[in-house]
Amino acid sequence: MNAMTPAASELKHELEHMSSHWWWFTLLGGLLAACGTAAIVFPPVMVGTSIAVPVILGVLLMIGGVATIITAFWAGKWSGTILQLLVGILYLVCGFVFTDHPFESALFLTLFIAILFIVIGIFRTVAALTIQFPQWGWALLNGVVTFLAGVVIYRTLPEGALWVIGLLIGLELIFNGWMWIMLSLALRSMHNKLAS
What we know:
Elements: H1 6-19, H2 22-45, H3 52-74, H4 81-100, H5 106-131, H6 136-155, H7 162-195
Helix pairs in contact: 1-7, 2-3, 2-7, 3-4, 3-7, 4-5, 5-6, 5-7, 6-7
């Protein structure tokens, strides 16, 4: 019988701890998916009001950022805390840029989002491949989609329209939300097994 490695034992202990907070991850996932849907729906509806589009996208990113930061602390000590704090802070910074500078050129906003998504995509992909937590394939898919979204945004410069940014931000938030929902379902299952 093979003994559990120290890293596997620590991961198991961490997942058992996180399983008691599975519902919080479900809420985060639902909120991010809702913000993503709004980011996709609002820009095409508001075609004539280009100033309102970056403000709405900025508010949605700030909501996602605050929720991500709160979840990182709420779930207690776990190896994903620093990564989630970085993602939440990046969401917030991007949201503030959108709301504080709605008159800035589409080129600047598009470039900023492209860099944000490329960096977040790399972080998530590396974390998924390194840690391989339950349902890590969703995190890997999330990271790859986020990275590719950043590359696509960058490739549309300078013609990229705000609705393209809204679509890609929406997809990023939806995939991120579903990753959390799938992880929360795995954690709930683990919690039910531990309770019985």
